[in-house]
Batch of 3 targets.
Target 1
Amino acid sequence: GAVVRLLAPLVKSKQDDPAVVVVDQQGKFAISLLSGHIGGANALAREVAAALGGVPVITTASEVSGVVSPDMIGREFGWEIENKENIKFVSAALVNDVKTGVYQDSGEQDWLPDDKKPANLIFYDSLEALKKSDCQAAIIITDRVLAEEYRSLLKKSVVYRPRSLVAGIGCRRGTSSEEIEIALVSALQEKKLALKSIRNLATVDIKSNEEGINLAAKKYGWPMEF
């Protein structure tokens, strides 16, 4: 209770809050209190309990139900979620045994542990098949920008952007980062590919000191390969 009262004025949102684990004075229990999934408090509670010889106390619904948590999917691979506002809806569907569809056309394949695969999670070979199904929620893993025809499907889906694209950059000496960014965004739009799926930029080694390329990479936090 004391910890909750101390933290209350500082709590912001599920996406921003850090992990908080509360431990009793004898080390018997390590309680995941805040940001169990995104912040990592569930994992920290297990680690602390193991170190102290105590018991981890975890109460998040997906953990209790033994199903995968939508806000943790692909996290270890650096995947980004396109529409975080739908996480709660899809999470509720998984926990409540509601039929949930999955479509994947890019990214790592081993994102779902065998012990976290509920019977209500159904995999589809195409977006069209998923769209026509009777699934009430969906998980979509793709580096493509989805067409307008899938708007109804997107309303009930969480879309994940795996780091599956490498952008090769060539330029004249002195090209600005703004010009490079515009060219890159234009190329992605033409091919209907997602900016969030870029893993890194790459160019020839003689361009390693090219300021425009390095600034563009730095702006988005992309690694550079020469």
Note: The mean pLDDT is 92.
Target 2
Amino acid sequence: LAASVGIVRAHKGLLDVSSEVGKGTTFRVILPESPMADQPIKRLTPTEIKAWRAAKILIIDDEAAVRVVTTRLLTELGQKVITASSGQQGIELFRQHSDTIDLVLLDLTMPELTGAEVLAELCRIQQDVSVVITSGFHPSNASELLSSPNVKGFLEKPHTMANLEAIVSSAF
């Protein structure tokens, strides 16, 4: 619920909760209309996607659903993906495959090790590692990390195929 509130607030929305004993609880999410609502989303054409060099992307995220969906989307874009369910597992996989990993999608908040701690360790392993920070929270929560030269961007969750295409293509 805390993550949901953060996402709603990041989009300048409201979360209205009403509860009645014996009847249940109702959550209403109220979001402003996007200023770009009438504009079509720019999607890469199959030719543009194929023009990317096939990359190997490491996803480090403690949420299984995020790993599964992001893996599927990246695979559709022709990318190779490996996943880690924790910061420590991500560090170990990066240590083993750092010579072939082109980009890391790193969750900002995870149990045990934070995104900042994982990023610091990845940079110790490989100074020029390329990382995109992902989070359900507003980018301002990652402002210190975003100033790192290794961080190539911020991907807000939940993300769309268009957002994922844009961030991955800009990282190369």
Note: The beta strands are 14-20, 24-30, 56-60, 80-84, 103-107, 131-135, 151-156.
Target 3
Amino acid sequence: MQVYTNVDQLPEFKNAVLTIGTFDGVHLGHKKILDHLIATAKECKGTPVLITFYPHPKQVVKSGKNTVFMLCTQQEKYLLLEQYGIQHIVVVPFDEKFSSQSPEEYIQHFLVDQFHPHTIVIGYDHRFGKGRAGDFHLLEQKAAEANFRVKEIPEKLIQNVVISSTKIRDALLDGDIDTAAEYLGYRYSFRGKVIEGNKLGRTIGYPTANIELEDHHKLVPGNGVYVVEIKLDKRTLKGMMNIGMRPTVGGTKR
């Protein structure tokens, strides 16, 4: 897999078939888009290319809302995308200047001039350009004059509920781990380092592990008591055993 972080130094992709989005969590709705991307690229003997953004656009464009926490780190996203067969990922630095492009400028100066696409594959709710004013219909209008095709993927439904990263975040914040796993297609997880706390757990006979997240933008599920599966490096495991902790495994909230 190749990850490109400089959009001014991209290789020339043969018959580039593009899809664009944040792909936070790489959930089952995203998988539908990725399947179409790869199938479309095979049809035209082209190269599937996924374009994503860092940081998340909602962390840059001010909307008066609280910070949006992520379902996956950048490295987790890359690993998930690779598992779904994506070999070319372009990471676009997202800033105020990029977000201020008009939809027409975005299509011409970014998508067409930088990638020369054969086909663009997008989800039904994809928006782009200043004020998120651009959509599938504008891409369709520009496709003929810029000599590319565009495909729109309809809503992916599970039990009549549209899958979205927002719904998954809400489920996790509510402690509904099973629903989040159903939408994601895998169990939610996060990585961190065990750090020293106030040692209050020892006073009640239940030593605890305080975890400092590797990425502070990663979403932490809502307050609750959870049965979890943990994976430890040898040094962490040795330290826990020395203070009498016994790691356990499980699968859902209690």
Note: The two ends are 39 Å apart (CA to CA).
